[in-house]
Amino acid sequence: xxxxxxxxxxxxxxxxxxxxxxxxxxxxxxxxxxxxxxxxxxxxxxxxxxxxxxxxxxxxxxxxxxxxxxxxxxxxxxxxxxxxxxxxxxxxxxxxxxxxxxxxxxxxxxxxxxxxxxxxxxxxxxxxxxxxxxxxxxxxxxxxxxxxxxxxxxxxxxxxxxxxxxxxxxxxxxxxxxxxxxxxxxxxxxxxxxxxx
Length: 197
Ligand code: TYD
Known about the structure:
This protein is of the alpha/beta class. It contains nine helices and five strands. The chain is about 60% helix and about 10% strand. Strands 2-3-1-4-5 form a five-stranded parallel sheet, sandwiched between helices. The mean pLDDT is about 95. Thymidine-5'-diphosphate binds near residues 9 and 94.
């Protein structure tokens, strides 16, 4: 099964992704987007550097380049070998951040994500829902998106809510307020439910 975790900065998805990987057991492949291949890790550094200014479309293309790499080289081979893959962010992040918050257009970005991944979408997307004020308080505040503050996080949070409606067949909304253990239990319940389908 291919599972992605999504949410605003500070929603706790990286911690939850790690716990989910442990719970799914040996052989589970963990992906952190952008990243996962040498080229994708270098693109990650470029994107996270506040000293580098990027046009929204160029920024999107870099995320997509990193995703094309990790999809072809890591995710597809793992799924073909019947391993579970857990991705800390995937195409929905581009749709929410670049498509909605940066204004490039939700439909347009969905189409470009499909081109970059050859149409691969997760079987299950866990959307960790958290109020943007709380998220920003938790986030470390050192990348270009976190520095842009509450306005951006609010726009991203709204976009995720729309995605949850548009893609309700694969998106499970998880209440991310609460302790790490409580949220992990909610995550596991959503995974069990999807596995039963
Ligand atoms: P990430 O490392 O997941 O940040 P954090 O662990 O702090 O949540 O992602 C870095 C930033 O990149 C984050 O602010 C979201 C943004 N992002 C996009 O804007 N578009 C994308 O396609 C992806 C994958 C991430």
